[in-house]
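User: Could you check the structure of this?
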Amino acid sequence: MSCGDPHDTECGEVLDHLYEFLDNEMNEGDCAKLRVHFEECSPCLEKYGLEQAIKALIKRSCGCDDTPSDLRSKVLARIDSIRTRQRAGESLVATEATAAE
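Assistant: Sure, the predicted C-alpha cells are below.
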C-alpha cells in the first residue's frame, strides 16, 4: 500500500512494523517516525485504525486466554519468512524493471 506521496518513512516499512507499534514493542524513536507518517498519510492511518479496532475486539473476546509461547514464536517466524520473500520479490521486480529500461 502506498498513498503515492513521498514520506521520510515509506508506507511499506510502516505497515511492516504496524503490529510492533500497536503492541508497544518498538523503541520511542521508531514510534515517533510512525506517528509522523500517520499524520501525513491517511491510507496508513486508516489501516492503523482498522488494526487497532481488530486488536481491541480480540482483546475483549479472548482477553483471558494466554498465547502459548511456542505458538507466538511460530507465528513471528512465519511473518519474518513472508516479509523476506516479499522483499526479495520486490527487489526482483525492481531489477527487472530497471533492466527493461
